[in-house]
Structure formats: structure tokens, C-alpha cells
TrEMBL record:
This is CHAT domain-containing protein. Residues 651-924 form the CHAT domain. The lineage of its organism: Bacteria, Bacillati, Cyanobacteriota, Cyanophyceae, Nostocales. InterPro entries: CHAT_dom, TPR-like_helical_dom_sf, TPR_rpt. PANTHER family: RAPSYN-RELATED, SLR0380 PROTEIN. Transmembrane segments: none annotated. It comes from Mastigocoleus testarum BC008. It comes from the Bacteria.
Length: 926
């Protein structure tokens, strides 16, 4: 369910935190006494008459903080002009900084840039004699650098923003302004993390923490600073760290005896606890489904099997929100906490009391006009719809009080228009359209959606623009305009792809709503492009779909794979090369077929790219998603049970018939030797090698590989140098069982190719980093415990002295710091990464996404890993044969070498797929 307003402050916080912190304004907006629109006019006229620049500046700041940006811009411009006429350059620059931020909030980046340039020009031309004046000039230079950093990050130039904030922090240090320094460093952390430099950001993070704990005489700074760091950690998905920091902030606030500070921190803590619940819950879900315009389906119409951990976190968040509301000294903050409390109740599937809703509606209605008040009204309207659906989950025609909801949204729209804030106007109009869509009034829903879209386009707000383009696509489809719907869906995906570089929009809300708010856009467009024929068959059917539609559908599937990897790491650092998709298959030495199966609610669609065949092939298997996922879950269970035979073969053959049997003739006709799968959903948890045709396993007929989209497959190096860094743990350690055959596994590798070995207590984080960053080993083989999870923080490999998580592994393998300690450069890419003793997390249905994420972001061209833990004796045999094949035949592909090793185990050691099937090759297969 969309809850954009509640956490929108978090997204803006990362770029505006410096301003709020420097002014001593708490990050949860305080309630300001805002006059009516007619009073605004009188006030502006009055201030124009008095021409008092101090009053203009203060009122402009007030308007800015309450979201009245056009009024703020007018008054701040006047203040700056008066200061200019008075020759007061320092105050002019201060006013210009606020004006630049105001223009940024309105999407006027050109004007904002010019204002920053003007500020720097004024400061550079200012000659001052007294030391106090020089100190103020330096402080204003730092402030302008902060404003410039905000603008640069808004424009997607994170590296430039980092440099601006680094300079600002240095200047603040020179003038002994520790608060300003902390402010700039927190912004720098946000930008570094957006680029994936987590270790660099952690160093700054540690410095800030140390400085904050020195400020015992300034508890307000400690509270706000710890809360800011907690919010940054939450935005980055480091939820446990966020929780710890916010609890520290809460402890200081309680000692201080400040209800306002305690309320603000409790609200932030409740948000972190809520997302901890979401993270636990989403491990049990696979593909998103969004049947309702208000996206209530995930929490109402489908019974959720929430685990006890998720329920606990939701209960904690509900209590934190209640406490925050009770202690709040700000009406807006109190309402925000109460609305978040409703969201927690929805996840707990608990109905609030009727009188609570009536009382809250009165409070929401009485909020003074501001963008946050607009979002509050929309949020409350959404909650009313979802509570109505939750109360009657099995009734198809559940009707909430649409008249009351429409009234709330109309009032929100009127307030947004009074404010002149295009973003909140768009948000209100789009949600009014949702009411009409909900009520199946398609034409008026379309009109409101197009109006909302127009406002979003005017400020280039892609994060809400895509929602209205998607909404328009759904409405046009209901009106029978399938081509118009395809166009709207296509624009929605283009908007989503533009968000890859808009680092501000990629916040934690987006990450956890990805399955309900992003994935369905891609899946629904694929479904539209590959409309099923009217004559369906039980197993499969070939349909005449245009090559244009097939290519677009293939591109959409590729884009979804890329979006899932970006979402996993919460950044947009995957390097995609879409032009290479066909070339990489056609130019390969081995005849290859790339198979794209995508699971839709009513069927499986399969697109196939064959080597040197221009036209794509297309097949449909008519099986509903519920049956497909049940069968795949059952097959995974049977494959992991060592003593299952006939029933496992029957289930495996059923999946074979869905995916392979329809395309078998094409594969034989084109003499295909290698299959590459771009898998979707639960299919990622199934080793394709174990699919069974009734007589043979798939691995007996083809070499196999997986690819998280061909646009993410890196080309292979021409000269394949076989030299490896190997490492592992044989002894029981940190609660993990012993792997006694690891020593033999590494010895076998060493006997086949030159290698450097790190075993047991020499296999530490520092030794790994030292070896990787000093020698460009083409092969990196780790025989240690590890886990792949759908959550990046739970994806790790075990070392002797700890764990290396997915983000740290990415940095270790991809970059190194030069001796100066200031610049970073890429290492030579790793040709092959092998994780021979890892497994996917138990109970996590999307855990294989962690494997795909590691494969893509490690920088390795190819990755070999296991989907489940196998006894290390079988692993030792398989890995020994894998390297023997690579060493004896320089022309063999990695996919062929792995297939030969799997067949050796199958034919000479263990027949059951449990022992040989889970090993998969991801990425470059040649």
C-alpha cells in the first residue's frame, strides 16, 4: 500500500538534513501556526510595505518550513534584493541559500543552480578585515557548499555532492563549528552509500558517533544527531543499526526530559521497527500482486502467513507510534504518528475502534495547510479503503465509504492548490482518480489521472509520475484501448528506469514496496504484450505475436531483472549494456539458447533467443501462478530430500513439460548445446539441471547456465589465465559445523592450477582484502559457509574472524584504495568466483536473489555457487573435476566444465540430484 507521505521526509532528509540541523529544527516537522490563504496575501502585502528584510527572511523561512514554497520564494527574493540594495552581502547570501533550496523543492534546478553560483561569486568578491566577519564568511561558504551538495545530489551527481560536503565539513572544522561539520558529514554518508561506498561511509559514520558522544553538555545535539544517523541507517536498509542508534537517542531524550525530542525519536524508532517487520514478512512472499487501485491486496484480500518475528516488530512499532503521539507537542507530528499506527494495525490485521477513526478524521481535517497535511489526508483516505477491505476480505464488492473518502481527497486537492505545490497537487489528484478507478468510473478516472500526470511532469517527479502512467495504463485497458495501455505502461517503465539515477527517490519505502509497487508494472506490461490466444490448451500453445512485441517483452523482462538487483543492493550501480543482448548469444562459439520464463497470474510466458536466429520464439504454458508456485515449492523440497525418487521425478517432469518440452523441437533443429536461463520468481530456487524428461536429466543433454539478464553479463577475457586465490574453513567455527573435506578440495585445486591458499585462521577479512587488492587473481575460490538471502544484510560468507556481507564483498572485489587514501580505482575484473559451500536461506522464498546479486555486483564475470548445502565430500569431488576440465582443455567453456563435473558425480558417485544439481553457474558461460 502506498504510504509515500509518511516517509517522504526521509527522502528529503538526506538532502535537506544540513539545513534543518543547522537551524536547530527537529527533523519531524513542528506544527507552525499557518494563516489562511487570504491572510497569506495580506501578510505578503504588509511585508512588502514594511520592506524589513529581517522579517521577510524570517517569514520566508517559515513558509519554506511549512511547505509554502511559492510564497517563500517571493519573500526570500524580496529579502535578498533589499539586502543587496543595502550592501549587506552576508545576509544576502543567507537569503539566497534559502531561495535556492526553495527553488529545488519546486523542481526549478536551473534557477537553483544560478542562485548558488551567484552566492559563490558574492562571497569570493567580498573583502573583509575583521576576524568575526571572516569567520561568518567562511560559515556562509560552508552553508553554500551544503546547498550546492543538495542540488548536486538531487540532479544525480552524487560524486560532486560528496566533494561539496567534504569541503563544507573541512570549513566547519576550521571555524570550530562541530554541529555544521556533523551536518555535512551526515549528508556525505548518504551520498557515499548511494554510490555503494559503504566502507568509506562507515569511517565517517564512526567519526560522527565519537563526536556526538563528546557532546554530553549538549544533549539536544546528541539526540538529533543520533536520530539523524539512525534515519540514514534505516534509509540504507541497516535496520538493526538504525534501531540501536534510535534507542540511544531515545535514552538521551528521556534523561533530558524533553517530550518533543522523545516523541520525534519514538516516531523514527517506530518507522524502523515497522520496516523490520516488513523485512521479516516479505521473506515469505514471491511475486507482487496489485489487484486494487489502493494496493490493499497484499494485506487484506490474501490471508498472510506472517511469522512471529514480523508480528512482534509490528506490535513494537504500534506501541512506539502510540507513545510518540501521546508525547507530541506538535499537532502534525501527532497525526503522523497516529496514521503510522493505523498502518501497523493494517499489517497486524486489527481493526481500529470506530470512535478512534472519527476522532482522527477530525484531527486530519483541522491540520493547517501544508504539503504534509495534504499527504496526511490522502494517507487517511487510503487507510479507510484498506480497513473496509480487510473487514470483508472475501466480498468481491466491498464498498468503503467512497463519499467520505472523496471528500477528504477533494479537500486535500484544494489545499494543495492553495499552496501552489505541484507535487502535492499531483498526489491528491492521482488519488482522487484512484477512487473513480475503484468505483469503475473509467472516463472520469482517466481525466483525473491525466491531470495528476500533467502536474508530475511539470516538476519531473518520476517517482510519482510512473504511478499515474501505470494507473492510466490500467484504466485504458479497462476501456478497451490495449495499444494506449501499452504506451502508458511503457512510459511508466521508462520513468522507473530514470529513477535509477535519481538517488533521492530510491528510499527504503520503495525497496520494501517493490513487489507491490514496482514489479507489477513490468509483469502487467509483459502480459499485455503477450496477450494469450482465445484457444487455450492444457499444456502449451504457440501464438502469433509480433516480433516487435516479443522484443519489447524480452526487454521488459531484462529491465525487471536489473531493477530487482538494484533493489536488492538499494543502489543503481549495476552496469547494463542492452545493445549486447543478441550479440552475446550470436557471437558465441557454442550454439546457445537463452530462455526467459516469466510467471504471470494465469500462465507462464516463455521467450527464447536462439543462436544466430534473428526471430525470437514464444510459447505459453497455461498454468495459474498458484499451481506453479505450489509445484515449485514441492519440487524444491523433494530435491533436498536425499531419498526421494519416483514422486520427485514426476514433479520434475511436470516442470520440464512447462519449460522445456514446448521448445524442444526448436532446440534440436538448431543443434543447441547450451541453455542459459533468465529465471523469474520461485524458478530461481530450482536447479534446471534436475529437470527430468522421463528418461534423462537436462544436464545430460545440455550444458547450463543462469543469467540475471544478458545485459548484465560481462564479456570474457581473451587470455584466460588460470591462477586462483583459494580460502576456506575446515573446523567448526562461530556456530557452524566443520567442513573436513575443504582441505582436500583446496589441495585438488592447487594440484590443477597455481593458487594461493588461505585456510582457517589465515582466512580472515584482512588477509582476504590484502590478497585481493594486491594481486589480480582471475579466480577467487571460497570453500566456507555462507548464506544467500533476499535481504542484502543477511547475505554473507563466513571468515575466521567474522563475516563478509554482500555489500562488503562487492567493495573488496571491485575497488581498492591507493596509497594516498583519497582515490579509488577499479581492479582487473575477476574471471571466476566460486562459493562452494554456501546455501540459500531456509524459509526465504526469494533467497536466490542474493546469489544473483552477489554474481552481478562482485564484479566477477562468472560465479559458481550452490543453492543448498551439500556434504563437502561430494563438493570436493565435483570441484576437483571442474578445475581438471578447465586445466586440461583451454577451449572448454565454464558451463561445459561444470556440466562435466556434475555428470561425473551423477554417473560415478551419487545418482540423486541432491548431491550434484544445486551447483549453478551465473553470468558469463563461455
Amino acid at each position: 500500500m502506498v504510504r509515500t507521505w509518511t516517509f517522504r521526509l526521509k527522502a528529503f532528509l538526506l538532502v535537506l538534513l544540513g539545513l534543518f540541523f543547522s537551524l536547530g529544527i527537529d527533523m519531524i516537522p513542528a506544527n507552525s501556526q499557518i494563516t489562511s490563504s487570504s491572510e497569506h496575501t495580506n501578510l505578503v502585502q504588509q511585508t512588502e510595505l514594511t520592506a524589513n528584510p529581517e522579517q521577510l527572511l524570517q517569514q520566508g523561512k517559515n513558509f519554506y518550513q511549512s511547505g509554502k514554497f511559492p510564497l517563500a520564494a517571493k519573500l526570500l527574493t524580496q529579502a535578498a534584493n533589499i539586502y543587496q540594495s543595502q550592501g549587506d552581502i552576508l545576509n544576502q547570501v543567507l537569503a539566497l541559500n534559502y531561495l535556492s533550496l526553495t527553488q529545488q523543492k519546486q523542481g526549478n534546478s536551473t534557477q537553483a543552480t544560478e542562485i548558488v553560483k551567484n552566492s559563490f561569486n558574492l562571497l569570493n568578491g567580498l573583502k573583509l578585515n575583521s576576524d568575526p566577519a571572516k569567520k561568518i564568511k567562511l560559515a556562509l561558504t560552508a552553508l553554500t557548499l551544503n546547498t550546492q551538495g543538495n542540488l548536486q545530489l538531487n540532479q544525480g551527481n552524487a560524486e560532486e555532492a560528496i566533494e561539496s560536503w567534504k569541503q563544507a565539513a573541512k570549513i566547519y572544522g576550521e571555524v570550530n563549528d562541530e554541529v555544521g561539520k556533523i551536518r555535512s558529514q551526515i549528508n556525505e554518508i548518504a551520498a557515499l552509500q548511494s554510490l555503494g561506498f559503504y566502507r568509506r561511509s562507515q569511517k565517517i559514520f564512526d567519526q560522527i558517533q565519537q563526536n556526538l558522544h563528546k557532546k554530553q553538555n549538549k544533549p539536544e545535539i546528541q539526540i538529533a544527531g543520533l536520530r539523524s544517523l539512525g534515519d540514514v541507517k534505516r534509509a540504507n536498509g541497516d535496520l538493526e543499526d538504525s534501531q540501536e542508534l534510535l534507542e540511544q537517542s531515545l535514552g538521551v531524550a528521556r534523561k533530558l526530559g524533553s517530550p518533543e525530542q522523545e516523541s520525534a525519536t519514538l516516531l523514527s524508532l517506530g518507522n524502523t521497527e515497522f520496516f523490520l517487520g516488513r523485512r521479516s514478512q516479505l521473506r515469505n512472499t514471491v511475486n507482487g500482486d496489485n489487484p486494487s487501485p489502493f494496493n490493499c491486496g497484499g494485506i487484506t484480500k490474501k490471508p498472510q502467513t506472517k511469522n512471529s518475528k514480523a508480528i512482534n516488530y509490528y506490535r513494537k512499532s504500534a506501541k512506539s507510534y502510540q507513545k510518540s503521539a501521546s508525547k507530541s507537542t506538535s499537532k502534525l507530528s501527532e497525526v503522523q504518528a497516529k496514521l503510522n499506527y493505523l498502518r501497523a494495525l493494517l499489517e497486524l490485521q486489527q481493526q481500529p475502534k470506530a470512535e478512534e477513526l472519527r476522532s482522527l478524521q477530525t484531527e486530519v481535517d483541522s491540520l493547517n495547510p501544508s504539503p504534509s497535511a495534504v499527504y496526511a489526508k490522502v494517507n487517511f483516505a487510503q487507510s479507510l479503503v484498506c480497513f473496509a477491505e480487510q473487514e470483508n476480505p472475501n466480498q468481491e464488492n466491498t464498498q468503503p465509504d467512497l463519499e467520505n473518502i472523496a471528500r477528504l481527497l477533494t479537500k486535500a486537492m484544494k489545499q494543495a492548490k492553495e499552496l501552489g505545490d505541484a507535487r502535492s497537487i499531483s498526489y491528491a489528484l492521482g488519488n482522487i482518480a484512484r477512487v473513480y478507478e475503484y468505483n469503475k468510473q473509467w472516463e472520469i478516472a482517466r481525466e483525473y489521472t491525466e491531470s495528476a500526470l500533467s502536474f508530475a511532469q511539470s516538476i519531473n517527479a518520476s517517482d510519482i509520475k510512473y504511478q499515474w502512467e501505470w494507473q492510466l495504463g490500467r484504466i485504458l485497458l479497462k476501456q478497451g484501448d490495449s495499444q494506449g495501455a501499452i504506451k502508458a505502461y511503457t512510459l511508466a517503465i521508462e520513468s522507473l528506469q530514470s529513477l535509477r539515477s535519481d538517488l533521492i527517490a530510491l528510499n527504503l519505502d520503495t525497496q520494501f514496496d517493490f513487489r507491490d509497487e514496482v514489479e507489477p508494472v513490468y509483469r502487467q506490461l509483459v502480459s499485455l504484450l503477450l496477450q494469450p490466444s482465445t484457444s487455450s490448451k492444457d499444456i502449451s500453445s504457440v501464438k502469433e505475436i509480433s516480433q516487435k512485441n516479443l522484443k519489447q517483452a524480452r526487454d521488459v523482462i531484462e529491465a525487471l531483472q536489473l531493477a530487482q538487483i538494484d533493489n536488492f543492493f538499494q543502489d543503481a550501480c549495476s552496469i547494463a549494456e542492452p545493445k549486447r543482448i543478441d550479440q552475446i548469444v550470436d557471437n558465441g562459439k557454442i550454439p546457445t539458447a537463452v530462455i526467459y520464463p516469466i510467471i504471470l497470474p494465469d500462465r507462464i510466458e516463455i521467450i527464447v533467443k536462439l543462436s544466430r536466429v534473428k526471430e525470437l520464439r514464444h510459447y505459453t504454458t497455461n498454468q495459474p501462478q498458484t499451481e506453479v508456485e505450489y509445484t515449485l515449492n514441492l519440487l524444491r523440497q523433494k530435491l533436498q530430500q536425499r531419498y526421494t525418487f519416483r514422486d520427485r521425478e514426476q514433479i520434475s517432469q511436470e516442470v520440464y513439460n512447462w519449460l522445456i518440452e514446448p521448445i524442444e523441437k526448436d532446440l534440436q533443429k538448431n543443434q543447441i548445446k547450451n541453455l542459459v536461463f533468465v529465471l523469474d520468481g520461485l524458478l530461481r530456487n530450482i536447479p534446471m539441471a534436475a529437470l527430468y524428461d522421463g528418461e534423462h536429466y537436462l544436464i545430460e543433454k545440455y550444458s547450463l547456465a543462469l543469467a540475471p539478464g544478458l545485459q548484465l553479463v560481462a564479456p570474457s577475457q581473451e587470455n584466460k589465465k588460470l591462477q586462483a586465490l583459494t580460502g576456506g574453513i575446515t573446523e567448526p567455527h562461530q556456530g557452524f559445523r566443520a567442513l573436513p573435506h575443504v582441505a582436500k578440495e583446496l589441495e585438488k585445486i592447487q594440484s590443477k592450477i597455481p593458487s594461493q591458499k588461505l585456510l582457517n585462521d589465515s582466512f580472515t577479512n584482512k588477509s582476504i582484502e590484502k590478497q585481493v587488492t594486491s594481486v589480480s587473481y582471475p579466480i577467487f575460490h571460497l570453500a566456507t559457509h555462507g548464506k544467500f538471502s533476499s535481504q542484502v544484510e543477511d547475505t554473507f560468507i563466513l571468515t575466521w574472524d567474522g563475516k563478509i556481507d554482500a555489500k562488503e564483498l562487492k567493495e573488496v572485489l571491485q575497488t581498492r584504495e591507493e596509497s594516498q587514501g583519497k582515490r579509488f580505482r577499479k581492479l582487473n575484473p575477476i574471471e571466476l568466483l566460486v562459493l562452494s559451500a554456501c546455501e540459500t536461506a531456509t524459509g526465504d522464498k526469494r533467497a536466490a536473489l542474493g546469489l544473483a546479486g552477489i554474481a552481478v555486483r562482485s564484479g566477477a564475470r562468472s560465479t559458481v555457487a550452490s543453492l543448498w548445502r551439500v556434504d563437502d565430500e561430494s563438493t570436493s569431488i565435483l570441484m576437483g573435476e571442474f578445475y581438471r576440465q578447465l586445466a586440461k582443455n583451454p577451449n572448454i567453456s565454464k558451463a561445459e566444465a561444470l556440466s562435466e563435473a556434475q555428470k561425473l558425480v551423477f554417473l560415478e558417485h551419487r545418482k540423486h540430484p541432491y548431491f550434484w544439481a544445486p551447483y549453478v553457474l551465473v553470468g558469463n558461460w563461455f
